[in-house]
């Protein structure tokens, strides 16, 4: 039975009234199709955490008969009302909701498999791997609001498993998965324009990489730190992080050995150093000769670095340098072509948008204002849920290039379109 402490939230009060333990509440939650850990539920009830996924909000409302905003509100005894938990939905399957029903069933099966074991067995470990792999592969291609909640819950699950008593042989694997989920959340924090939270997640991810003793993961996290610093307007830090990861990448021989030098290249370009930029781009190309995929690359998606992303990064770097217009045009054209096929495994909406922005900048440098507008058009039509931080900054770079071109008045309409676009960045689900 839940302890009779003074409840801090309405949710905690209602759990007390039910005379159930938190594990019993979690079991009922799962039966209704939701997925939640006991640790997550306790943090919600204590008021320590307010973030929930749409699925979690729907299930909590079905269990307790109140919107989640009311459930997580501070509890005031004299205002408490008698609440009869809402009955569970009939589960009737109608045309159009089959996939949602199947997702709920999969979540139920996943939660049962993990809860049914005192120690993490091979099947349960495979399930956790699959959850993290799915998030890594979905991240570059789906809008962040669609996957953020599940990503947060996956991190919470992995942390909870690490904090519980597990077999020693599972610790290294779990730290590896914790590092990956932390890295994905670092990218999510960056995409939402919060570099402080991004670097905090990255530091914890690097700690997990150390505990997993995984060189490829260490190098990958350094790459994320370089990325965050670059877009935050700190190119010196971006260079430093890329160089810090170089030794780990060399030992791993994974695709991070390409990502780190090409990341360093665009930071040097932002600093106006063409020699260092070209040297870093050459190192990135040479690195392909020794690349062999590791288990992090095998995760796919954001966890690996392919040729398409290399083209985009090179175009983004060279677009900074007035003396590299011809090379920048060649790389940006190749990058735009590489991202035309949205069914390609390497397709990523953010990198596709960045490639178009780099092409627009090179066309401005060549005096092709109409061509720049054509290049940027696919970016300016992106829906708000895909206007991540890097995309917005790329559009602002085009605006800056127009101002510096000496022909700003001729491109006034395009500048105004960019200003409207950047005023409405991505928003996540309401909390």
UniProtKB/TrEMBL annotation:
This is Tetratricopeptide (TPR) repeat protein. InterPro entries: Lambda_DNA-bd_dom_sf. It comes from the Bacteria. The lineage of its organism: Bacteria, Bacillati, Actinomycetota, Actinomycetes, Propionibacteriales. GO terms for molecular function: DNA binding. Gene3D superfamilies: lambda repressor-like DNA-binding domains.
């Amino acid at each position: 039975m839940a302890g009779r402490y003074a409840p801090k939230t309405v949710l905690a009060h209602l759990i007390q009234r039910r005379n159930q333990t938190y594990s019993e509440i979690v079991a009922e939650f799962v039966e209704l199709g939701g997925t939640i850990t006991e640790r997550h539920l306790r943090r919600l009830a204590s008021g320590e955490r307010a973030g929930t996924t749409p699925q979690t909000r729907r299930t909590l409302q079905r269990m307790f008969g109140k919107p989640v905003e009311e459930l997580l509100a501070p509890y005031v005894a004299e205002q408490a009302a008698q609440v009869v938990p809402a009955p569970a939905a009939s589960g009737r399957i109608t045309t159009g909701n089959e996939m949602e029903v199947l997702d709920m069933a999969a979540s139920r099966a996943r939660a049962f498999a993990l809860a049914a074991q005192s120690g993490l067995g091979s099947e349960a470990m495979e399930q956790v791997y699959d959850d993290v792999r799915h998030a890594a592969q979905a991240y570059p291609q789906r809008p962040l609001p669609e996957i953020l909640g599940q990503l947060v819950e996956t991190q919470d699950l992995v942390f909870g498993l690490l904090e519980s008593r597990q077999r020693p042989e599972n610790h290294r694997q779990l730290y590896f998965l914790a590092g990956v989920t932390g890295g994905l959340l670092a990218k999510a924090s960056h995409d939402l324009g919060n570099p402080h939270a991004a670097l905090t997640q990255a530091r914890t991810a690097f700690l997990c990489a150390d505990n997993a003793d995984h060189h490829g993961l260490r190098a990958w996290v350094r790459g994320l730190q370089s990325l965050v610093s670059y877009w935050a307007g700190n190119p010196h830090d971006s260079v430093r992080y890329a160089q810090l990861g170089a030794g780990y990448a060399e030992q791993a021989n994974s695709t991070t050995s390409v990502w780190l030098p090409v990341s360093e290249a665009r930071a040097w370009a932002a600093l106006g150093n063409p020699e260092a930029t070209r040297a870093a781009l050459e190192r990135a190309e040479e690195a392909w000769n020794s690349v062999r995929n590791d288990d992090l690359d095998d995760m796919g998606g954001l966890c690996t670095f392919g040729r398409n992303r290399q083209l985009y990064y090179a175009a983004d770097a060279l677009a900074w340098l007035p003396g590299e217009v011809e090379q920048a045009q060649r790389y940006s054209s190749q990058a735009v072509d590489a991202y035309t096929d949205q069914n390609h495994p390497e397709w990523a909406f953010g990198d596709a948008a960045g490639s178009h922005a780099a092409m627009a900048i090179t066309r401005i440098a060549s005096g092709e204002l109409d061509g720049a507008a054509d290049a940027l058009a696919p970016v300016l039509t992106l829906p708000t849920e895909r206007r991540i931080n890097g995309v917005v900054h790329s559009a602002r770079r085009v605006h800056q290039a127009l101002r510096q071109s000496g022909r700003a008045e001729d491109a006034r309409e395009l500048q105004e379109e960019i200003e409207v676009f950047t005023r409405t960045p991505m928003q996540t689900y309401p909390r």
